[in-house]
Amino acid sequence: MTTHRTLLLGLTLLATPAWSTPTCKLVDPDGRVIFANVPVKNTRKVQCFERAQAPAPKQVAPAPQKSGPPQLTPVAARVESGEQARRDTERQRILQQELAEEMRLLENAKRLLFKPNPSNGDSTAAAFQALEQVGPVSASVRRHERNIEALRREMSAAR
Length: 159
What we know:
Layout (H helix, E strand, L loop, with lengths): L1 H14 L7 E5 L5 E4 L7 E6 L31 H33 L10 H35 L1
Helix pairs in contact: 2-3
């Protein structure tokens, strides 16, 4: 029974947090400074520091509930009508240039896609080579067609 009490007392002492004891500045015989919260052999105690209390958490009052419209309302930027007309005209010009370029690229891609193959038509290798070239060109044609559609939609929406 006494061994159980001794063991229990020992465990209780070990479970005591180290922060409950003050931290001391100690100096060993070689002059080295040591900070510890437990005794260290062959040192002399210079000064002890009590553990500082952590500040209590601040109580923050909840933000007041806003009722009604907000104080500041964002204002949309205003552009003079002449400036807006100039911007719209410039945008239409840029879209038309992009449309013309996409149409030119589409025509080039279609020319490549439908170009007759000068190699021997009987050769299986020539057929595989033609198929390998058709895939990327076909994808290019589809991409240019989608771009042209998108540009036309954007131009019609801007009018």
